[in-house]
């Protein structure tokens, strides 16, 4: 799935956590959602083929419904230092007045352009919105293990990331050009001690080194807070598979160091499986033929059993679908053999909600309210289906279990009127 041994002395670790984490959580409570977070990923590439700009977060009503926005992704080089994977998108691309959050066109020679300047304008418009830089992701986690390997590599990694993203010292730009854009760091290491994308560096000691990396982040973020007077978030994206959780994370220690953690609530199944299945069910459906049960509840219950506090556990939800074609026409397409991934706009077997909604007349919608999932089927093509009905259901699940909020991958999948985030937040309230 797309998808305890090393610590500082207990007194120091406790002091670091106490001095930083409560400040970050206080910002969440200030949002007026009784501590419930709504976290959304805006991707670096959204402004290309999808033509979904930061401005669209305003026009479709998303921005005022978010407590946190994660900008994805910054990468790591082989030594573990932070780098931009697309400087043009991040801080060089000029935007015209009609594309800009502020309604003003970028001009030649200004200190900051690109998505980061648009995020800066978004913060000016919504000053209570917390914006974090996400590091890694499926394509950018290759060298996390190198970054976390030794005290020296951890210190160098954190220093480079804070210098680039929080202090805003971008290569080729004026010193501090992007200072103040980001309120913290979101670590998307996929996955410590488990294989993610082919070629990723994986070591058995990743588990303890991940905890040590968080301690180093807290230490250097504390120093930055001392200088700036600002609090900073430290969050992480975490896997749903209990086997990956156990191999890669000292859960109670990790959550003691995080402002909050987001748990993958999607990609339970996809076209890498030979049979159709759900990708984001709240509970494991009856009759699921998969050898291991995957669902949001399986993941959440495992984290809670390992010591994660409910108040810091944020459940991920998808604004996209997973699809198969060549599907046997039986059981409304569910749990049936398929010949391969369904054709799609950007990636075979993966389609944005807003794209599939425009084709909804071609399909029949099927639901399993007990398990909490839905799907589309036309007799040969099958798509998982997270529409407003399922988003409200997921929001209610988070609220009923008193979890720490919901996280969205990714915001560019929603419609022009933001119907998915409106449904999700109505369920959360």
Number of strand segments: 15
CATH homologous group name: Glycosidases
Oligomeric state: single chain
Which regions have little confidence, pLDDT < 50, spanning 5+ residues? 1-34
Q: Which CATH C-level class is it?
A: Alpha Beta
User: How many distinct domains?
Assistant: 1
Biggest sheet, spatial arrangement of strands: 1-2-4-5-6-7-8-15
Structural class computed from helices and strand pairing: alpha/beta
Mean pLDDT: 93
- Molecular shape: globular
Sheet with the most strands?
Answer: 8 strands, parallel, barrel
The topology string of helices and strands comes to: HEHEEHHEHHEHEHHEHEEEEHEEEHEH
Give the name of the CATH architecture: Alpha-Beta Barrel
Between the first and last Cα atoms, what is the distance in angstroms?
30 Å
- What's the alpha carbon Rg, rounded to whole Å? 21 Å
Strand content of the residues, in percent?
15-25%
CATH topology description = TIM Barrel
Helix content: 25-40%
Helix run count: 13
Question: Short description, anyone?
Answer:
Belongs to the glycosyl hydrolase 18 family. With 429 residues, the protein is of the alpha/beta class.
């Amino acid at each position: 799935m797309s998808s305890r041994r090393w610590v500082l002395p207990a007194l120091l670790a406790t002091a670091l956590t106490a001095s930083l984490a409560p400040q970050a959580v206080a910002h969440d409570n200030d949002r007026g959602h009784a501590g419930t977070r709504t976290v959304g990923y805006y991707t670096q590439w959204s402004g290309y083929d999808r033509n979904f700009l930061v401005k669209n977060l305003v026009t479709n009503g998303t921005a005022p419904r978010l407590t946190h926005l994660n900008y994805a992704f910054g990468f790591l080089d082989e030594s573990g230092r932070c780098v931009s994977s697309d400087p043009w998108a991040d801080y060089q691309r000029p935007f015209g007045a009609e594309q800009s959050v502020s309604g003003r066109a970028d001009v030649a020679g200004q200190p900051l352009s690109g998505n980061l300047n648009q995020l800066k304008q978004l913060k000016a418009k919504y000053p209570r919105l917390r914006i974090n830089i996400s590091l890694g992701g499926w394509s950018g986690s290759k060298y996390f293990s190198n970054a976390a390997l030794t005290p020296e590599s951890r210190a160098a990694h954190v220093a480079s990331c804070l210098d680039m993203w929080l202090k805003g010292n971008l290569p080729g730009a004026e010193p501090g050009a992007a200072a103040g854009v980001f309120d913290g760091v979101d670590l998307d290491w996929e996955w410590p001690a488990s294989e993610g994308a082919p070629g990723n560096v994986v070591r058995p000691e990743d588990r303890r080194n991940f905890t040590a990396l968080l301690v180093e982040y807290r230490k250097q973020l504390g120093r930055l807070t001392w200088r700036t007077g600002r609090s900073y978030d430290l969050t992480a994206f975490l896997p749903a598979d209990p086997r990956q959780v156990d191999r890669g994370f000292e859960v109670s220690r990790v959550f003691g160091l995080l402002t909050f953690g987001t748990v993958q609530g999607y990609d339970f199944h996809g076209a890498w499986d030979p049979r159709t299945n759900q990708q984001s069910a709240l509970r494991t459906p009856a009759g699921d033929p998969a050898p291991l049960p995957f669902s949001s509840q399986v993941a959440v219950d495992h984290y809670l059993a390992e010591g994660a506090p409910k108040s810091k556990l944020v459940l991920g939800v998808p604004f996209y679908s997973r699809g198969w074609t060549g599907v046997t026409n039986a059981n409304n397409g569910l749990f049936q053999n398929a010949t391969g991934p369904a054709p799609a706009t950007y990636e075979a077997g993966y389609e944005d909600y807003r794209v599939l909604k425009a084709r909804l007349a071609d399909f029949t919608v099927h639901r399993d309210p007990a398990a909490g999932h839905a799907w589309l089927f036309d007799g040969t093509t099958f798509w998982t289906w997270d529409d407003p009905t399922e988003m409200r259901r997921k929001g209610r699940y988070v609220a009923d279990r008193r979890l720490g909020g919901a996280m969205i991958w990714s915001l560019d999948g929603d419609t022009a009127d933001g119907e998915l985030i409106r449904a999700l937040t109505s369920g959360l309230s």
